[in-house]
Task: structure prediction
Amino acid sequence: MSKHAFNRQESWRYKRVKPAWRRARGVTSKIRKEEAGWPPKVKVGYGTAAATRGLHPRGLQERLIHRLSELEGLDPKIHIIRISARVGERKRLPLLEEIRHRNFHIANPGKQEEKPVTTEEPTTEEAPSSEQTQIPPTPSDTEEAVEEDPQKKTSEPEKPETARRQPSGLRQEQNLDRPRGNN
Result:
């Protein structure tokens, strides 16, 4: 079961009301009354188990790392590493190398580390010329098409065409030449 985002009442309506939870105290408050169709009210039953509270989804304690010296005293079986966003690329690369050497899980390895960069360049194939792509029809193909048409005509009886009435717009156009009565 996922957690609800317990937002303050009317925070979605007014910019001045921040979404941080505050207890609804109004006499007619729908959230306080827990009416259907309104966001849930904070209650004891929505809490997480004490054993897993505050842990990373992998079940490890998350630690924010800024430098190599902060890795001392951490255990790869207990901790997962999150590298600070303030660490630049030049210091991040040796830090990543040391973290991998010590077999730590990394919560934010970065895009470069997720998929290795290949040094091979993609090869481009030349498109076949238009002369090669066009295939002239053979006489046997056209004969089969001609033979299929008479079979279709013989299997379906022809329907006599019925006289259709002209659409009303056309009749009115034809009547424009006729003299009109006095208005």
Observations:
- Residues 113-117 have pLDDT under 50 and may be disordered.
